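Sample entry (96 residues):
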Amino acid sequence: MQEIINNKGKLCEFLKKMIIETLRLEDIIPGDIDNKASLFREGLGLDSIDALELVVAIEKIFNIIIEDEDVGKKAFASINALAVFIQDGYQRALKN
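Predicted structure, serialized as tokens:
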């Protein structure tokens, strides 16, 4: 997992696949998801239930806590934002 986390491109692809699998998005492939597009509203159109499922998946897979709604909104702004959030969280964990 460390190799994926340390490589933003691989991490973005992993996150796209994770989102598709976690939310069972049947008509979407990773290539359909723009790394810069919003995950909610006009982007993928995810909702608050999807957000809860993704929070659980992120915490389980990466052992990174999303402390509150404000942190979640920032982290889930896009695939790129989520990748940076995970990389930063992983680096903080290594320092502790």
